[in-house]
Amino acid sequence: MTPATPRGPVIDLGGVGVRREGTVVLDDVDWSVQPGERWVILGPNGSGKTTLLTLAGARLWPSSGTVEILGARLGRVDVRTLRPRISLVSGSVTRQLRADLLARDVVVSGRHGALETWWHAYSDADWARADRLLEEAGLAAIGCRPFGVISEGERQHVLLARALMREPELLLLDEPAAGLDLGARERLVSRLGVLAADPGSPTTVLVTHHCEEIPRAFTHAGLMRRGKLIASGPLDEVLTSARVSACFDVAVTVGHRDGRWWSRAE
Known about the structure:
alpha/beta; 6-stranded mixed beta sheet; 30% helix; single chain; 9 helices
């Protein structure tokens, strides 16, 4: 049985630093994510966003400070019991999946976080859930098509369905809209907005470069710059023109309308 999500923070970082070959990647980061919150982390390339997400996924240990995920502290917990409670959508997963694996098989394999369906046995209920997740994404028709021949936008929806297959307590999304055309991006952002608005969906953290990719119903934001979390908190307090301009080192105006955010150069 999956352990219940703790009443305290889902993610709790205290004074966290990460160094790789003498280079500081994260520097003295404090960050807390409460149950049910939907976070977006923005920042330029090389600011430490993906490293932050990797820590939150219990796939990296800090060089200094403390990291607690779902009530368990890294270094004191067997991550083999922690990682199944977390789902990650990232390009690294895409590159590990066989191109000829059917989309339906990709989704059901998320039940055990596997890359091949023959590694485990799946029940009729598992297959029904996989089909339902594809149907909810509007992709029931592609279930029997190879993962490698469907469109990039469809692949992102399949990966999202795969991540939801195991009913995680924490969902991590690393630039899921990267490389998508306008239509595919908007369909994915819309799907993420539906999930964010559902109180039964897991606590979520999304990494992106673009304000336009923030789904409706997201609640909090963090701004990363040069390995530091320079601002964090409720969306409308963090995503100001002044703060986003300082984060990306370019003068921009930031605004929102009907639940969606935008930015443009001044």
